[in-house]
Amino acid sequence: RLEEFLKKEVDLELSTLPDFEERVIDVSEVEQLMNSINAIPAPCAPVINPQAPNAATGTSLRVCWGLFSDDTVECYQLCYTPVSNERHSDEQAEHTLKVKETYCTITDLLPNTQYEFWVSALNASGTSPPSERAVYVTAPSPPTIKDKKIRSCENAALVCWESRDINPVDSYTVEL
């Protein structure tokens, strides 16, 4: 029998390719998981502080914020816009500043004007959601004393002034 078998021609070619040669292994999910192990998460939203006493002049405001978590933060993005009933004026432009600290003094503002501020934290993984918005107010301009209307006598003086501010001023302090 062996002799007969060896005399026969045997075709050793396979008619189809084996399954393992056609398969492509997708490792993208594994790569993504490996990359996420060393990645830091995007930070949480910062918390903007309310306006502190004496944190404003007629043309500047000091804005402060903080984080509730131990997030890694490379910098902050502070945004602000003047508060106004008119939504399409040129002064309504939104301003954005990149800041390394958790505070910033903004200058060149209008006196006795409300500004709305919000802040986001940034790191290599992305940007946090914005903080709640906080409204800060610049100090009013000093009033102009009307020299021609000043009157005085032995026990009294009459001093008149006018405000240079568009928005109403709550009160004045007169010093002698």
TrEMBL record:
PROSITE patterns: FN3 (PS50853). Gene3D superfamilies: Immunoglobulins. SUPFAM superfamilies: Fibronectin type III (SSF49265). It holds the Pfam family fn3. Residues 46-142 form the Fibronectin type-III domain. This is FSD2 protein. It comes from Oxylabes madagascariensis (white-throated Oxylabes).
